[in-house]
Amino acid sequence: MSEQPLHPAVERILREHGGGHDLLAVLGRDLPGADLTALLLEVTRRRAAALSPADVLAAYERDRFVHPAAVDARRLLEIELVALAAVTPPFLPVATSPLVPLGTHSAVAGVHQNRVVATVRRSEVTADPTTSLALEAAVRRRRLLAIARRSSEIVHLASVDRVVRAQRFDGPRSFPHFTLLGLVSAGRDTGNQAFELAAMREHLQALVRVTERLGCPRVTIELTDFGGRHGDVLEALMTSMAGDSTQVSARPDRAAARGYYPNLCFKLNVVSDGETVEVGDGGIVTWTQSLVGSGKERLMTSGLSLERLALTP
User: Fold this and answer.
1) CATH, domain range 73-311
2) Where are the domains of the chain?
3) What's the pLDDT tens digit per position in 206-236?
4) Which one of 58, 152, 170, 197 is separated from 291 by 20 to 30 angstroms, measured CA to CA?
5) For the segment 90-119, what is each residue's pLDDT rounded down to a tens digit?
6) What is the value of pTM for the model shown?
């Protein structure tokens, strides 16, 4: 793995305190994990001990990560229940932890580590429910494969999570923490792109059901194949998913998330009062291939922003 450039603040600290890169090597690689945790806990304890209640209140006022959401809590809870009811079955609801192991988002999903909020206990705050669900799905798929070496049984999981993302977003419906519905389907390649077609259709139908039950009058779905090898799947989806209130189209010019999704993906928008709002995203990823240790594994993930739906008239 190539070395990432250091943040300017880190470069300055190393210069001013004379530690050089040896300090980073000790803390970032050489020191055992338990020892590093003990060190960071003591540092955090000392910093917290120096704070007064007034300091904490001042931090609360200026820290964007800790401000309450702009959405009505009752409305959001109602939407969460509607969403889970709409996707069950085939998706099994799971109450996931708000934390995942350190490196989940970067090592599994390829997301830059600086975009997630890490803890001093070698864990990180969930930034996407599908990463947590992918870990659970991989565990369940391994159990199935232990029983039947070529099991093609699909694990369908769903969760509703309040996630935190460290990068800054622009726009009236962009927040540092928000609620997402996450769906994953983990299975095995059975040939002829059968898993890809079935899983994409299953996820899209589930997400459209959520929007319908929430009273969204129109939905648009944009399909993309970054790899250019799944034209038949796109054609079948455009034929089967289109309806009176659902418009489906191909979007070959999509650039966002090209490195995240290697081939098939989609965006889902709702149209309300003449405004188009992006609320959903998903696609086929390769995460379980490395988690389970088999190139035959397949994984479909998708997410729906319940926060944006709660704020949409």
Assistant:
1) 3.30.930.10
2) 8-62, 73-311
3) 999 999 999 988 999 999 999 989 999 999 9
4) 197
5) 999 999 999 999 999 999 999 999 899 999
6) 0.90
